[in-house]
Amino acid sequence: MKMTKPVPKLWVLISITISFCLFILFQIHISDLIAKNPQITQQVNNFFISIASSSSSHHQTLNLTGNANESDENRAKPPEKEDTCAGRYIYMHKLPNKFNDDIIKNCRPLIKWFDMCPFMVNSGLGPQVSVSDNTTAHVLTTRTGSWYSTNQFLLAVIFRERMKHYECLTKDPSLASAIYVPFYAGFDVSRHLWGYNTTVRDELAIKLAKWLSKRPEWMKMNGRDHFFATGRIAWDFRRVSDQDSDWGNKLMLLPEFSNMTMLAIETTAWTNEFAVPYPTYFHPKSLTEISMWQKKVKSVKRRYLFSFVGAPRPKMDGSIRGEIIKQCLASHGRCKFLNCNDSGGKDCDNPVKIMKVFQNSVFCLQPSGDSYTRRSIFDSILAGCIPVFFSPGSGYNQYKWYFPKDYKKFSVYVPENGMKNGTVSLRNVLGRVGKESVLKMRNEVVKMIPKIIYVKPGLVGPEKIEDAFEIAVGRVLERVTMVKRMMEEGKDLQSEYSQIRDLKKLE
């Protein structure tokens, strides 16, 4: 007799029956355990339900598994990172080389009186200062790579190099909150200050104004979101007439540039100019280096009550330098005078000699020079020396983004008239400042050091330093934001510019 194969459904039924019997037997022996843990019963029931439904819902189970994996993948995705550059993006114009690189290629005649070529190296920081000898290491620091013979007119080059490494630099102008124009305006005007007519002096500025006005980026705010930096004083760009005998060019009087923001080492009273620090000799790489330097200048013993680094000027110019030098030399060793006329001026181009004088002085005298301000202000602050001003235009009316509002916190003010008529004794005035006041002022000066230096270009890493560059860029962005809001509200920018200049709403 022929045997027939059982039907597959019969085998399924037999399997389920056997499993069910085993389950009953299992329950009889461990009933106590199940009573104590009802979760076991639920798990076993779920097991049998899955067996019973496996044959009819295999395809559906695969789909559910796929959906579950997809859901897990979505849940595993990290949240989108916040755009830390929102509102901080800057677009840098790619200017034709004639507006920057070609200017400094011919570096010898940029300033009539001396050769600028040696100072162009190291991204405009100048030659590196060696600290191999004991004297230099004692005055500066044993660390290498942070000290340079930086020229006071190199701000535009340094600023451009820093901008190349700015963390929120964008190639998409539509994202930019501000537009940077890398024009070497200071070198353009300085090479034409002597022996050139006004047409030559104005030529490149006029060409740049036309180039900018045709760019699509310009149309957004008619240039009110554009800015540039220069290592010259603002008066060099505001010639009052077209007579060849008048000084400078008329860059800032051109309609296009009158809308732009200018960052300069010294400004006038115009509302679109802002003063930024002169470059110093110190360009550190990290917060650690800055901290080490701050500790050094706070603890150093200071031999002189006051000092003056500079050259004498004719009395007919109205300069008080003659009186300052006279009192310094008559101070019986309480004042140090470094004469910049000695050794052909080389002593005052030597970072070690200058910093040595300032480190050894409690107060550093800062009279006006060719203009109200001087680079020496920042060299003395870098050395932890308390600056002494003789005119508000030398510091208090200039560097509002960098100096404390209360000038008494970090400096001493001696009215210039008292020096001119000989009624003020610097030794007496400065000698009466108490030790506690000196300590407080020095601490304030030392706190200012990170704000007045320009960090070496190309730095990356977690240690962000809010140096002079970062502060300037931040304030430009704030100013552009305010201008944009005023334009949207239909306000008269000219009547409201005083608010923009002081940034009172933001301080």
TrEMBL record:
The keyword Glycosyltransferase applies. It is a single-pass type II membrane protein. It holds the Pfam family Exostosin_GT47. Residues 60-81 are annotated as: Disordered. The chain crosses the membrane at residues 12-30. Its main location: Golgi. GO terms for molecular function: glycosyltransferase activity. Keywords: Glycosyltransferase, Golgi apparatus, Membrane, Signal-anchor, Transferase, Transmembrane, Transmembrane helix. Residues 85-425 form the Exostosin GT47 domain. Residues 60-69 have a biased composition (Polar residues). It is found in: Golgi apparatus membrane. InterPro entries: Exostosin, Exostosin_GT47. One of its GO terms (cellular component) is Golgi membrane. Residues 72-81 have a biased composition (Basic and acidic residues). Belongs to the glycosyltransferase 47 family. This is Exostosin GT47 domain-containing protein.
